Task: structure prediction
Amino acid sequence: MVNGDFYVSTSGKDTNDGTSDAPFRTLEKAMEAVRETDKSGRHGITVCIEPGEYRVSSLVFSAEDSGTADCPVTYRANGGEVVLHAGVTLRPEDFHSVQDYPAIADRLSADAKKNVVVLDLTQAPYSLSAADWGKIYALGSYHTADKYDGDWTGSLYCELFINDERQNLARYPDSGFLQTEEVVKTGQGKEYDDSHRTRENWDDLRNPEPDVYRVNESLAERIASWKDLSSVWMFGFWKYDWADASSPILSFDKATRELTPRFVSLFGTRTDAPYYFFNVPEELTAKGEWYLDRESGLLCIWKPENFNTANINLSLSEAPVLSGQVSHAVFDGFTFQGTRSDAIELSGDNITVQNCLVKNVAGNAVCLTGEHNLVTNNEITHTGKGGIVLTGGDTQTLRAGNCIAENNLIHDWSEIYQTYQPAVTLNGAGNLCAHNEIYNSPHEAITYTGNNHVIEYNLIHHVCLLSDDAGAIYAGRSWVWYGNVIRYNCIYALGSEGHWPNGIYMDDALSGQEITGNILINIPRYALHLGGGRDMNVTNNIIINAGDRAVSYDDRAREGALDDGWFDHAAKNGDMWTALNASPWQSGIWQSAFPQYKTMTDDFTKAKTADFIPNPANSVLRGNVIFDLRTSIGYIAKPVHNFSSVEENMILPLYKINTFFADAGVGDYRIRDLQKLQKSIPDFQEIPLEQIGRIVS
Result:
């Protein structure tokens, strides 16, 4: 409990004066009071929100709502949980037996008729309409819906959460995936074959021909039993496990068993691609599933255990809970939930989001654009997309944004969009991601674009659960993003059965990175995957039991530039060159900050020199300790040896971990005899393991 300047309470009135004895009812009224307060001579303004649930559609801030350096504005939860709910809480007592609704009941199995209950959302006290719950639009990071005429893209549909668990829109199978079988036809996707080359007229192509698959007899019978296919959707990873997309069904022919999605797969097709069907009322067959008849507003759920005391929430608002522009503002201690968008989406400087819980939202948790912004000590869970997105700083001048994502617990996110929705994203220049614990996600944990970011002391585990060509920390395809540092992170237990991702993945010729002092344990594929870049400083890392190779460092950029390799992005006029030439790499500011650029050349006649940009040159792989069944550092391409330095790495058999570390069996990776190690690697420094992860006060 703190003393405030204004107070808000669920029992207050907006006609009150906002004191503790006569609080406001809404946050909007408190914002108005702050806006009207003269900030000169003050040391801050605090708005105290009393415990309770506050229904908000969206709180939109403007410059007038800002504080100043001397007088920041703080909105804080006061004395208990304050929930800012952009959806609606549904009462269990308002649900009825599905038998009361024959049109729905007739499409359900006998078991479902016993377990499904129905709520008419159009009736009081909810009185909702189709505009509130929304239609189903394409989802997935790589859908092609925008190539088709019609209303196919928009906000995510409303979602149902029971006891803080996201419910599945009735689907088949109930969990996991089917696999595509025979590909009858590959449609007019962006990639037209396995060469990764782009269809020449792709940008101008409208309504491309879709793919066609043939299903097995059992699945054909099942699909034919569904009464209405026009509202059934498919979600899957149709070509690559890093490219998720969805499509409604265009047609199904029971006689030929040919299934045609409405939208083409962006990258083409393959057999054994994982997918499932959703929004199928006949498949409302298990706990955790629901269905909404979008014409009648009838909400159907499979009753959870202890249904009468269940916490049932429906997301509604299409806008962020907090949005707009504000500076010198603090948001402290709130629970954000129930939006079909991002929870917080603000621009401005000196914004702090701390001690909050963000859950059950369709988009990202916190997106801040500006400088000196801080996201600290929050818990983020059950988002449809990512966690924290910080954008700040100037990549032209390399002015630091000084934005920080620190000491957050981020878990069980990316539940709707299942690829490229990281827990933390840094964009711009000079930002920090530190001391976060990150786990349980289908894809990557941390990514970045830009320069001079630091990613340190993070504990990352159980991520990339549904992908192979992915990394817990990932960035790629740039000769421009120099100056980033990845240090003192612990990464372990990635992937799942059948999926073999990487630890730290510097993809597609990413260059100019420093990777030092990390510990990577039981990484299924490559602990360090270096995709052909240059000026990589990889030192002092510990790698234990990588499933494939400890290190993979290839020469894809050189091959793409000179030998017509698959990575034609590095060939003349490729997009790697386009991005480089659009950057200030030849400016005095950049060449002072990154002296490597001073000698680099784009002259193809100098391809045999270290200065030729596509060469994997001037990198250092030194002083790393590797425990490996094969006692091998891994794959190092010949040009890497020619143009870079690979030396003083200690490669030990895996069984020696028990003599090398204090007690690896219980996760104690302190080095037993550092002085002995330093006789072989003089510059090796012990990794500060006790500082990795969240700082718990």
User: Anything to note?
Assistant: Residues 88-314 form one domain. The first helix runs from residue 27 to 35. The mean pLDDT is 96. The two ends are 19 Å apart (CA to CA).
